[in-house]
Design a protein that fits this description.
mainly alpha, Growth Hormone, Chain: A, 16 helices
């Protein structure tokens, strides 16, 4: 009974931690370019370039270092990695609030990427503690923290920046990560048996230990495309809202609502869809999510008022609730416990690559085909993902 309580307590604490990590990585998005603009006299082209560098830096570094942290997690335990990540993020947010030029800011954003790993290690810790028949529900609940934080972050960041200042917003976020560090240190419990150095597998050994490496690596690509699709509309969302509201003075408020509404839907839908996935198969839930996303993204290109867009974005939140937790559950059920840290960290690297690629795709498409083209291209991305997952999960369906 104590063990059951322990993993549920961990789930509650780590939900809060992943929620804050999601906020930390996303809340600066509404004002990052404006913060850059305060650091010098830049042309429009320079401002776009420096803002892009500052935006992508943390995700770029995350993609590089995540496998290294995952290997270390298999040696030292996931809790130590959680403590390391939360302490580092607290420090780096304070530093970003003190930046005096754009290159300092880019450097601090790179350091932020170095201290990544909270989310992947939280997933790995829960995945190794929860009974297999409840992993879909547990990981579905946990992923709502990250997804909701990521989607609510811009709304919180924009609000704090408008009430206080850009610099003080970074400081407040740093204080929140101090809280994450404290609750993680004192309230998360892990019974961890370290993998001995001589037993530590090479990358090739990890791949050979997988029963279905094609499926696992297919899930990595799936994660990357999900993130790219979610983030492809990030650069143009506020501009699209302004266009359909005809430059209304309420544009800023409704942009925040449009950005936040999928997180609210995900928060309520993910645990329920996780339970359904445990009964009927996570692959079926994943493909349902893709189908729903395709159906929803296409009409987004043709909305005529903001309420239509809010309704469709709510449905995207339901789609997200079925996709990301299902991927995590499939990885959990197809990964030996002694390499879970490595597999989840690799998955985070692909997630970070999607975070970098998505806005770049959105920016290029919107400049060539207007805002509506971004939603159509995103739907095409999801179609490709659906076809790939259908092929990769054939073995799962046969064994079921």
């Amino acid at each position: 009974m104590a063990k059951k309580f322990s993993w549920k307590q961990n789930l509650i604490v780590l939900w809060f931690g992943t929620f804050m990590a999601g906020i930390g990585f996303s809340e600066v998005m509404p004002f990052l370019s404006l913060y850059v603009d305060t650091m010098g006299h830049f042309t429009k082209g320079q401002l776009s370039l420096y803002s892009g560098l500052a935006f992508a830096a943390s995700y770029f570094m995350t993609a590089i270092v995540s496998p290294l942290w995952g290997k270390l997690a298999d040696k030292t335990g996931r809790k130590l990695m959680l403590v390391r990540a939360s302490a580092g993020l607290a420090l780096v947010f304070f530093l970003m609030g003190t930046a005096t030029n754009v290159w300092q800011l880019v450097a601090y954003r790179l350091i932020q990427g170095v201290f990544s790993g909270y989310i992947s290690n939280a997933n790995a810790l829960i995945a190794t503690q929860v009974p297999k028949n409840q992993s879909g529900q547990a990981l579905g609940t946990l992923v709502t923290g990250n997804v909701s934080g990521t989607l609510l972050g811009p709304l919180l960041g924009g609000t704090l920046a408008s009430i206080f200042s850009y610099r003080l917003t970074f400081m407040i976020t740093g204080l929140l990560f101090v809280v994450v560090f404290l609750v993680t240190t004192f309230l998360v419990h892990e019974n961890f048996e370290p993998v001995q150095k001589e037993a530590m597998m090479t990358t090739r050994g990890v791949i050979k230990s997988l029963n279905n490496s094609q499926l696992v690596f297919g899930m990595f690509i799936t994660t990357m495309i999900i993130q790219a699709a979610n983030n492809s509309i990030a650069p143009i969302l506020a501009l699209y809202v302004r266009e359909i509201m005809h430059n209304s003075p309420q544009t800023t408020f409704f942009s925040g609502v449009v950005a936040a509404i999928p997180g609210i839907a995900t928060l309520f839908a993910a645990p329920a869809l996780g339970r359904v996935g445990d009964r009927i198969g996570s692959d079926k839930i994943l493909m349902f999510g893709f189908a729903l996303a395709i159906i929803v993204y296409i009409p987004m290109a043709f909305v005529t008022n903001v309420w239509q867009l809010i309704g469709l974005r709510f449905m995207i939140g339901v789609s997200n609730a079925s996709m990301l937790p299902a991927v995590q559950t499939i990885l959990t059920k197809n990964t030996p416990p002694h390499v879970t840290g490595r597999i989840f960290s690799w998955n985070q690297s692909f997630q970070a690559m999607g975070n970098v690629a998505g806005p770049m795709i959105g920016s290029v498409v919107s400049s060539s085909f207007d805002y509506s083209g971004v939603f159509i291209s995103t739907a095409l991305l999801v179609v490709i993902n659906l076809a790939m997952v259908y092929t990769n999960t054939k073995a799962m369906r046969r064994s079921a």
